[in-house]
């Protein structure tokens, strides 16, 4: 099989294959040979584009961060900081969009839980930042004290973002294990998220407004 260094289709196949293999067997368990086989390219072509597995993972994360930034700009369209309906609609849209990121979310969560090197952990958390960035900007825009912004970041990540990540990465397996209908689970999860987190977050903003 000959190398085609300028073939961008080959590079995309490598990235797609790496995402699948990392998701199926984990980053540490993934072999470049398996990625090459899945992508139907020569192993040497992978090393033409990427120096290592780490560089492949970094490229996947960077691509998804860029996509998350684009998604964020399309989700929360209302400029009304206290519009609960707009936040709930945005939350539902974000969950729908993040479903398509299940594989990269699972890979990143696995790397964070395995206590991998600091660079991979840092890149993993960097992936989540675009999702929370709008809320941080809105808190600062209405003059919320920095100490309270920090509290909002903590609450947003651990009571808003992490439940969503958990739902997306293991929700279907949980539903299968306990015999729940997946549509019912999604309806209830989004309802709980909106009722418990979104409404409390808006109340927090109103209370902190100078």
TrEMBL record:
Checking SUPFAM superfamilies in the record gives: Homeodomain-like (SSF46689)
Can you tell me where the transmembrane regions are? Answer: none
Superkingdom of origin organism: Bacteria
Domain HTH tetR-type residues, every copy = 8-68
Gene Ontology MF term list: DNA binding
Pfam families according to UniProt: TetR_N
State the DNA-binding region(s).
31-50
In its UniProt record, which GO terms are filed under biological process?
negative regulation of DNA-templated transcription
Family matches, as InterPro entries: Homeodomain-like_sf, HTH-type_TetR-like_transc_reg, HTH_TetR
Q: Which UniProt keywords apply?
A: DNA-binding, Transcription, Transcription regulation
UniProt protein name? AcrR family transcriptional regulator
Q: Which species is this record about?
A: Anaerosolibacter carboniphilus
Q: Write the lineage as a comma-separated list.
A: Bacteria, Bacillati, Bacillota, Clostridia, Peptostreptococcales
């Amino acid at each position: 099989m000959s190398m085609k260094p300028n073939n961008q289709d080959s590079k995309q196949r490598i990235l797609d294959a790496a995402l699948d293999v990392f998701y199926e067997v984990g980053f540490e368990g993934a072999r470049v040979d398996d990625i090459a086989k899945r992508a139907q390219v020569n192993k040497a072509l992978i090393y033409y584009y990427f120096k290592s597995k780490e560089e492949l993972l970094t490229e996947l994360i960077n691509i998804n961060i860029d996509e998350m930034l684009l998604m964020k700009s399309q989700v929360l369209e209302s400029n009304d900081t206290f519009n609960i309906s707009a936040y709930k609609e945005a939350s539902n849209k974000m969950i729908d969009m993040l479903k398509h990121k299940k594989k990269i979310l699972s890979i990143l969560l696995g790397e964070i839980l395995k206590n991998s090197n600091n660079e991979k952990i840092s890149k993993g958390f960097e992936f989540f930042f675009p999702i929370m960035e709008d809320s941080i900007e809105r808190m600062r825009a209405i003059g919320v004290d920095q100490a309270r912004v920090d509290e909002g970041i903590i609450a947003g990540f651990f009571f808003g973002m992490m439940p969503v990540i958990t739902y997306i990465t293991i929700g279907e397996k949980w539903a299968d294990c306990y015999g729940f209908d997946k549509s019912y689970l999604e309806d209830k999860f989004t309802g709980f998220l909106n009722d418990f987190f979104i409404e409390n977050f808006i109340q927090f903003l109103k209370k902190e407004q100078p």
